[in-house]
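Q: Convert this sequence to structure tokens.
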Amino acid sequence: MTHPEESEEGSLLRVTVVGGGPVGLSMARLLEHFLGAQVKITVFEGRWRKDGRRVVWKSQEEGNVRRQQVVTVQSRQYLAWPQYVQERLFDPEHFTEMWPSGPDSIGDHHPRNMRIAYIEDKLLEPANEKRDRIRLIPAQVRPGGTARRTRLAACARHL
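A:
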């Protein structure tokens, strides 16, 4: 969901992301990286909680069973991430490279297998550091709830 508006710097794009898993956090990080101050991103995730000024994943005791499945990340995708995100993600102890390369492999960069929970942790860390551009909301979006109010408020500013 996007909401353009004007600011002192020019056009400002407001983006709401529902779901803070690997896809939602990747999208938020890429938008922030490429658009910088031109974008304000809000990410909602019900499996998060506040821990001081940071947002963290809820524990199993809090009702969140973290996904331990392994996913394959193709090099075409991981090479698009900013370098500082790649450096955090690709600790040699937390991925294995696959062989042979596939159609989404670039050059000598092989697909990498990683645990989903590890990817989520490593993408959440830098999102916490970008509070001026990425707002992390530890709550689920309900139909007619927060996301709808945000969209209506954005529309009202343009009237």
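The beta strands are 2-7, 10-18, 39-44, 48-51, 54-57, 70-73, 96-97, 112-115, 134-137.
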